[in-house]
Prior knowledge:
Layout: E1 5-13, E2 16-21, E3 24-29, E4 41-45, E5 48-53, H1 55-70
Amino acid sequence: xxxxxxxxxxxIKGQMGIIEVGNIKRKVFLxxxxxxxxxxxxxxxxxxxxxxxxxxxxKITLDILKELAxxxxxx
Length: 75
């Protein structure tokens, strides 16, 4: 199973960007979403932003992932 995680774009330099997922910052390739801008949300998988995502949907997904991480299911 593959999982794409939403993150907010903090900076862009060429085809690379820094995204924030929770309190974690990661470098990602942005070549698949050339229209992306700083403060947009993207779905990332294997170090690549694979599509842009609505901010509301991104926050809902991040809240669900946070709940899972804090639950007994993931322990």
